Amino acid sequence: MEITVDGKNIRYKVTGSGKKTAVILQGWGTDMKLYDSIAADISDEYRVIQFNLPGFSDSEEPSEPWGVEEFAAWFNHFMQALEIRKAVLIGHSFGGRIMIWLGSLSKDEISFAIDKLVLVDAAGIQREKTPKQKRSIARYHFKRRFFHLPLIYYFFKDAVDIWQGQQGSADYRNSSPMMKKCMVKAVNDDLTYRLPDIPYETCLIWGDQDTATPLLDGKDMERLMPNAALHVLTGTDHFSFLRKPQEFNEILRSFLC
Q: Do residues 95 and 23 make contact, with C-beta atoms less than 8 angstroms apart?
């Protein structure tokens, strides 16, 4: 199905026929289909909404760089358009950023009631760079300035463009120019200060081998959020829900159903 919200045409789907509603917010650069197994886990009890955020998969991207606040505002309008009054929010990675922002707002600042939150290998905590990371960033900026000197770039344009295309994470490299700007804006927004303001009952599910959003992030969220409990899936990475689907399902259903 398709819907236009704030001028952005996006795709979404609805599964299940339960009286309660759950909405799945995706990780950066993923397609909503990646979360079909989560929807299937609870579709007997919930009507489950999956969708592609603006700029993700086949949905229309923003016309200017968006950060977490802009994505959250758009999602609020998406919920209004679908006339959803109350919902459980389930967020993976970047979807967790949006949920942290929304969950920390006062109830009169959002158009729907939040029932419960499920954060899966969620992003949102920005840590101080290590000395090694700072040196790596400094080297990158030095090389970038040097390679883009007019004379250097004129003679070695193809080589410079290849080098530039190899920089950054896989998510960054695979993003469009506009979504690269959105990603930079979003990932540099540290939401740690908002965690204590989230009053909702929250289930944190984490892979102990997650390198994108380390387990330490999950532990800090549990410590800082008033009503959060952390569940660790051993031997899993940033996609813990795919690596151990049965254990994930048991945790999710125990929390929601």
A: no
* DSSP-derived pairing of the beta strands 20-25 and 86-92: parallel
Contact between 42 and 115 under an 8 Å Cβ cutoff? The reply is no
Residue of 241 and 126 predicted with greater confidence: 241
**pTM for the structure as a whole:** 0.88
d(C-alpha 122, C-alpha 106), whole Å = 21
Give Cα separations from 156 to 88, 141, 148 (angstroms).
Answer: 53, 18, 9
- Asked whether 17 and 228 are in contact (CB, 8 A), the reply is no
How far apart CA 91 and CA 28 sit, in angstroms, is: 11
Which helix (H) or strand (E) is 71 found in, with range? Answer: helix 68-81
Handedness of CA 176, 78, 194, 42 (dihedral sign): negative
